[in-house]
Amino acid sequence: MTGADSASQEFRAGVLALAPLLVGVIPFGMIYGALALANGLSPAAALAMSTILFAGSAQFLFCQLLGVGAPATVIVAEVGLLNLRHALYSAALAPRIAHLPRRWKLVLAYLLTDEAFAAISQREAAGKAGPQRRWFYLGAGLALWGGWQLSTAAGVVLGARLPAHWPLDFALPLTFIAIIAPLIRSRAMLATAAVSGIVALLAAGLPFKLGLLAAALAGMAAGWWLAEARR
């Protein structure tokens, strides 16, 4: 098998690994597009955010906080904390792509999302990654990118014409459950997920979505404490 054939197979495998997650991503993207317009963003700004920021949960949170008039400091703090997980994703993948040229690193960093990281982690854990693994990463990232851009554009075009009775708001939690559940492999990880979920439910009534901030901090603290205790 030539290097080109191997790269093509890896790219295709990345696309196929990510494809099932698009079932949850597409309605989530449509919700974001409609929500962005409802909270004062222009169609161009809504689409630009999807292209430049390319972080669904952060875009969703930004629009919600903007809609309730949250102070800029709260918006920056919550969106920033929510996106800290991408630094952890990058740290986990960095040793595997350290040998690649800078242009590859920049592209893969831009395309690194929750869904792409989940697909990559499962493949790495199964021992299927080969010397052309970067093409798998690229395929998974581009599949998610394309699905997100199309779905957010659909949400912007349809806007308020989306039926209010459609339970599209369930797409976000269901998508993240599907991503997180297969990756829980230790008690510390389970504690992090359980504590953050419980705190998020208990603190759901806090203003400016501060319950999300509290849940993230509580979950990280629980996971860290249990990991240290086991040592």
Explain what the structure shows:
By secondary structure, the chain is an all-alpha fold. The protein has two domains: 162 residues, no CATH class; 48 residues, no CATH class. The protein is built from twelve helices and no strands. Helix 1 crosses helix 9, helix 2 runs antiparallel to helix 10 and helix 3 packs antiparallel against helix 9. The radius of gyration is 18 Å and the shape is globular. It starts with a helix and ends with a helix. The model has no long low-confidence stretch (mean pLDDT 84).
Instruction: Provide the gyration radius in Å.
Output: 18 Å
Number of helices: 12
Oligomeric state of shown chains: single chain
| Average pLDDT over all residues | 84
Number of domains: 2
- Secondary structure: number of strands: 0
As a percent range, the share of helical residues equals: over 70%
| Beta-strand residue fraction | under 5%
Which structural class is indicated by helix and strand composition?
mainly alpha
Q: Given the C-alpha coordinates, what overall shape results?
A: globular
Distance between the termini: 45 Å
